[in-house]
Design goal:
Elements (H helix, E strand, L loop, with lengths): L1 H28 L24 H11 L1 H21 L5 E7 L7 E9 L5 H67 L5 H34 L24 H9 L2 H22 L6 E8 L6 E7 L9 H66 L5 H36 L3 H5 L1
Antiparallel strand pairs: 1-2, 2-3, 3-4
Helix pairs in contact: 2-4, 3-4, 4-5, 4-7, 4-9, 6-8, 7-8, 8-9
Length: 434
């Protein structure tokens, strides 16, 4: 009879336990299968074997860049932290028996249910949401950095193509001078030493052409690696290296710094630190545990057990973790200031380099190149007619080659400075112009 009464007393408790457990199990069944990986084998993107535009290169990189893929994985992982932050503490089922002799044996079965106090669950949810926002900000920043890297690599390829074109034109000029010099040596009008000098100048241009071709191969590989392809297939890039980017005003740069992904990331990090501080503050509030059970004792009826236990924070009030969270919150505030100052300084330096390079390009384009080309054409015709010496012709040729090389370098510096501004500010204006 006592066993029947004990079992009848346990029945409501067991039903309550199973209802809680089954509810938790059904909630778990709604979650995705975390035991298996849904990651497919990574396959690099292969661009078509045709001319490549800047917009197409950016699209390839944003979809297939390995670093962006890592940032996407990190963002997806924060969903698990958010799910875990919403979870409530599990109940505990306990069984206790006193003595082993049937005449004096006492058994008790009880369920213990912790109750979170002080807003712990909501604080965890807020902290995990801020972590998810931080991962999203880092993804946005990584996309901006990859976009800027593609733009820089694209213009490196474009500059290398232009450098090869200029080297080929220069080689044609030097070969023409060498041919004229050889004819004049055969005619006995100049010394064979002059022909040797002309061939040396021609050889130097051939070396320059070979170096430009090597730089083009390296630049093409660097560009295609941004979308995971180590063996570039595109034939050439389409664009105009002579189209100069405009230098934004200082006021416009200041506004764009405040809206940059890098600064946004540090601001979200501060919000996350504030949320983590709130989590540590809620841990200082003790969580009571409610206990409900049934006790079976010999020669007596079953007894209902009910109890409440509360931790006493005499020795550990979480003050150390709270202090650490507060100091890291202060650090996040300092990082915002430091990051803003760093961005402003680096952006202004890049803007100054852009202005200097643009001024150099304008001067070379309007004054130096026309003058050098005119002088070379005049000395070339005069040398062919015997009015100028070979040294004068060679000097005019070298001046033209140096002016063209300097012009191409200034163009590349202009685009590099503009790309650096875009990288720092996460700007896509260059992409939008294509």
């Amino acid at each position: 009879m006592r066993n029947a009464a004990f079992h009848s007393g346990l029945l409501p408790l067991i039903i309550a336990v199973f209802s809680i457990v089954s509810g938790g199990a059904s909630a778990q069944s709604e979650l995705p299968n975390f035991g298996s990986s849904n990651a497919a084998a990574y396959a690099p993107a292969i661009e078509p074997a045709a001319a490549l535009t800047l917009a197409a290169a950016i699209r390839l990189a944003l979809v297939n860049n390995p670093d962006i893929a890592l940032a996407r994985r990190e963002y997806a992982a924060t969903e698990g932290a958010l799910i875990q932050g919403q979870a409530r503490p599990n109940p505990e089922l306990s069984f206790m028996q006193e003595d082993t002799r049937s005449a004096t044996r006492t058994s008790a079965l009880q369920i213990n249910l912790p109750i979170e106090m002080g807003g712990k669950r909501q604080a965890r949810i807020d902290a995990s949401q801020r972590g998810r926002e931080l991962a999203a900000a880092e993804l946005t920043q990584r996309q901006g950095e990859v976009r800027a890297a593609v733009i820089g690599a694209f213009f490196d390829v474009l500059s290398a193509q232009e450098r090869i074109r200029l080297a080929q034109e220069t080689l044609s000029l030097t070969q023409r001078v060498t041919d004229i010099t050889g004819k004049r040596v055969i005619a006995g009008k100049i010394s064979p030493v002059e022909e040797t000098k002309a061939r040396v100048a021609e050889a130097q241009v051939k070396v320059e052409l070979s170096q430009a071709q090597g730089d083009l191969r390296v630049s093409r590989q660097k560009l295609s690696s941004l979308w995971g392809n180590a063996t570039p297939r595109f034939e050439r890039v389409d664009g105009a290296v002579v189209d100069l980017p405009e230098a934004p005003s200082v006021a416009a740069l200041d506004r764009r710094v405040l809206a940059s992904p890098s600064l946004r990331r540090t601001e979200v990090e501060l919000q996350r630190r504030v949320a983590l501080t709130r989590v540590e503050q809620t841990k200082r509030t003790p969580d009571p545990t409610i206990s409900l059970g049934v006790k079976r004792a010999p020669e007596s009826t079953n007894q209902i057990l009910f109890g409440v236990s509360v931790p006493l924070p005499f020795f550990d009030s979480n003050q150390g973790n709270l202090l650490e969270a507060l100091r890291r919150e202060d650090k996040a505030r300092d990082e915002i200031v430091a990051n803003r100052l760093r961005l402003q300084s680096e952006v202004l330096q890049a803007r100054e380099r852009l202005l200097i390079a643009r001024t150099e390009v304008d001067t070379l384009r309007s004054e130096v190149l026309p003058g050098a080309l005119s002088a070379y054409e005049a000395t070339g015709k005069g040398f062919d007619a015997g009015k100028f010496s070979f040294l004068e012709t060679l000097d005019a040729q070298r001046t033209l080659i140096q002016a063209r090389t300097q012009y191409l370098r200034a163009l590349a510096d202009t685009h590099r400075a503009a790309t650096e501004i875009g990288r720092l500010l996460g700007d896509s204006s260059v992409e939008q112009k294509q």
